[in-house]
Design goal:
Layout lengths: L2 E4 L5 H10 L5 E3 L10 E4 L4 H10 L3 H9 L4 E4 L1 H6 E4 L10 E6 L9 E6 L8 E6 L3 E5 L4 E6 L2 E7 L2 E4 L10 H8 L4 H8 L1
Parallel strand pairs: 1-2, 1-3, 3-4, 4-12, 5-6
Antiparallel strand pairs: 6-9, 7-8, 10-11, 11-12
The structure holds glutamine.
The site of glutamine (GLN) has 11 residues, from helix 4.
Length: 197
Amino acid sequence: MKVGILALQGDITPHRRAVERLGHHPELVRYPQQLDIIDALIMPGGESTTIQKLLDRWEMVEPIRRRAGEGMPIWGTCAGAILLARSIRGSDQPTLGLMDTQVERNAYGRQVDSFEAEVTVEGMEGSMRAVFIRAPIITHVGPSVRVLATHEGAIVAAAEGHLLATTFHPELADDDRLLQTFLDSPEGLWTGKAAAS
Ligand code: GLN
């Protein structure tokens, strides 16, 4: 399995190390052609406005949408979760619009720009240490989206079929369980569970 990491801007190296820890050689995706040789894509944290501009400049928006439409699993962390969202509250900043979610950027304000918390993610044993850095929250989800984790009432992880969004950074906590689950479940781990419940 070839795991791609969108490598235009942001928190690329920690994801690369995490993918390598699980025994894969990631493809650092900078050109649209690379999207055709990967089986899954991770979109890292960073600055969502910058990443979106670079996606436009390198003409990667439509190829990513096409691969998502073909069922390629995509995981967006933090800025990546913003890019996955259908809309951004109070903003007309463009996104890829792949998940039926609305997000609010920098939702924790300046006083808690960055913090860590223990969160419980559906399907994971115990809790995970979650690192939030100028994080968004997911303010609204459509009926096909499954909420996987909340923190103090706000949605911080959600899945829709093969698409996964987390507003925090598991790759910075050296906890590879969510990555392992994502890679093990190309159709979306939570899809089957949702259907069963
Ligand atoms: N605040 C950033 C944004 O709005 C996201 C921060 C992050 O990815 N850690 O794009």
